[in-house]
Amino acid sequence: MSVSLILGGARSGKSRFAEKLAHGTKHYIATAQAFDDEMKERIAAHKKQRGENWVTHEVPFDLVNQLRKLDDPKHFILVDCLTLWLSNLLLNDADCAEMIYDLAAHLKETKAHVILVSNEVGLGIVPDNKLGRAFRDIQGIANQGVAAIADHVVFMVAGLPMVLKGPKPTEPSPPLE
Length: 177
Known about the structure:
Elements: E1 2-8, H1 14-20, E2 25-30, H2 37-50, E3 54-58, H3 63-69, E4 75-80, H4 82-91, H5 96-109, E5 113-119, H6 130-149, E6 152-157, E7 160-165
Parallel strand pairs: 1-5, 1-6, 2-3, 2-4, 4-5
Antiparallel strand pairs: 6-7
Helix pairs in contact: 3-5, 4-6, 5-6
């Protein structure tokens, strides 16, 4: 149906913007893992922000398989976020390039409305260690791959959407009464 990529830095408004685009049966694929209390609090705040109208799927690794399970034209799927998914893969020595390829192949054929949230990590300083540089590189490759397929690409800055590709995705109209 449609694929959108919402990029931006930390706390740029990516998730909030993506959530406002939701319609139909709303599925939230959460890729974060709660390793400490601070992360547990962040996850709880995200759940509270989006409300109870979402079906949440916690998927730190097998993203493509979950997308396949939900592939239905009636479904709106928000993946939040590619950055944490890639971190999980990289830290578990997974073949990130193959996983990105599989993701891109699925997105080309999806029947669902899919929005992927991802951080733009290439605008800062060059990381001072090998793992940091590897992560920055694989994140950039993933963002480029998804952006090439996406119908819409939006870069969020200070809560403001800057359209990079396609028309600006719009919020659904309220139901007529």
